[in-house]
Amino acid sequence: LASRGVTVHLADHDQAQARTAAALGAGTDEPPEGVVDLCVVAVPPAHVAAQLADAMRAGTARAYLDVASVKGGPRRELEALGLDLTSYIGTHPMSGRERSGPLAATADLFEGRPWVLTPTRDTDTEVLNIALELVALCRAVPVVMDADAHDRAVALVSHMPHLVSTMVAARLENAEESAVRLCGQGIRDVTRIAGSDPQMWIDILSANPGPVADLLSAVAGDLEETVRSLRSLQSADDAKRHEGAEGVEAMLRRGNAGQARVPGKHGAAPAAYEIVAVLISDQPGELARIFADAGAAGVNVEDVRIEHATGQQAGFVQLMVQPAAAPKLAASLRERGWAMRQ
Ligand SMILES: NC(=O)c1ccc[n+]([C@@H]2O[C@H](COP(=O)([O-])OP(=O)(O)OC[C@H]3O[C@@H](n4cnc5c(N)ncnc54)[C@H](O)[C@@H]3O)[C@@H](O)[C@H]2O)c1
Ligand SMILES: O=C(O)C(=O)C[C@]1(C(=O)O)C=C[C@@H](O)C=C1
């Protein structure tokens, strides 16, 4: 917001956090002089209602919103406090980090991501419009939903996956070092969010336990079925092994079908890009150089992933490009001296 010319006043119960955010260019930690247009509350879900109530009673802003990961609970808490909620709208940007605090923040975090807005019949149109302006300034994609429908949806796409990631990561806790050192990109993808703050997630899960328990129980059913198939694969009997393989294959194919439904950039269907993998060293400026060389080759890089090699000052950059452009890009980069993965 600050980079788009909005005056942002930062406040936090831990002053050092607001000061750090201000030092990073996110705004000022000085309080505003008068009433502001919009008050954005971004505190752990259990504190949202109290924080909003304080701001509303102090007449801080013309409109109020929160960004908590759950919507039904905070709304009901606010209603119980007897506040006038015409100036409030509950929202949730569907993008985040597994680390907390201003040092983990990035200015482009919400670009192209859904941002849920949960207006009710009581919400002022002016307040909804201010929220839409915020979403547009952050270059996110607004999605209007009912608060409880939102909570059921995020149980499926965020809360249950968080627990499954956590359980996979938990298997590593006491694993042999000789096994853990082999961690590749697959397990990094599956476990990244398991590094999140447990207190924040206790708040989130406490506000949405039923839908998450139902989904986890369905996952437990799939786990049991897959264990049965794998046990059949261990059998000496051909027919049983065949049955086991069919069971595992059916599970893997269901996974393919679900994964294909995960939206790509800007909510569009995932594009089928070709990957051009280039070896880079951990030197400053390597990425900039490779992007400049891709640009010089006249190829648009659609997406990028970086794979770090354990214990080495090197890694692979996966440049995702339109399939037709991949051979041209690979040839041009090779010509400019880059080492490519075949
Ligand atoms: N991290 C994510 O992935 C993500 C994504 C979308 C929404 N959210 C939601 O955003 C909110 C903030 O999450 P975050 O990841 O930015 O956390 P964070 O830990 O980075 O920031 C929370 C801040 O709130 C402050 N704080 C805590 N209690 C407070 C209180 N009572 N009064 C004032 N300040 C208080 C903390 O000092 C901290 O600076 C949460 O409601 C979370 O559910 C998080
Ligand atoms: O990618 C992350 O690190 C997240 O925290 C992401 C994520 C998610 O599940 O997508 C987690 C919780 C938030 O409510 C919104 C986003």
Automatic annotation (TrEMBL):
UniProt-listed SUPFAM superfamilies: 6-phosphogluconate dehydrogenase C-terminal domain-like (SSF48179), NAD(P)-binding Rossmann-fold domains (SSF51735)
According to UniProt, the reaction catalysed is:
prephenate + NAD(+) = 3-(4-hydroxyphenyl)pyruvate + CO2 + NADH
The record's keywords, sorted A to Z, are: Amino-acid biosynthesis, Aromatic amino acid biosynthesis, NAD, Oxidoreductase, Signal, Tyrosine biosynthesis
Pfam families recorded: PDH_C, PDH_N
The pathway is: Amino-acid biosynthesis; L-tyrosine biosynthesis; (4-hydroxyphenyl)pyruvate from prephenate (NAD(+) route): step 1/1
The Prephenate/arogenate dehydrogenase domain covers which part of the protein? 1-264
Q: Name one GO molecular function term.
A: prephenate dehydrogenase (NAD+) activity
Q: Does the keyword Amino-acid biosynthesis apply?
A: yes
Tell me which InterPro entries the record gives. Answer: 6-PGluconate_DH-like_C_sf, ACT_dom, NAD(P)-bd_dom_sf, PDH_C, PDH_N, Preph/Arog_dehydrog, Prephen_DH
State the family it belongs to. Belongs to the prephenate/arogenate dehydrogenase family.
Protein name, please? Prephenate dehydrogenase
From which source organism is this entry? Streptomyces tabacisoli
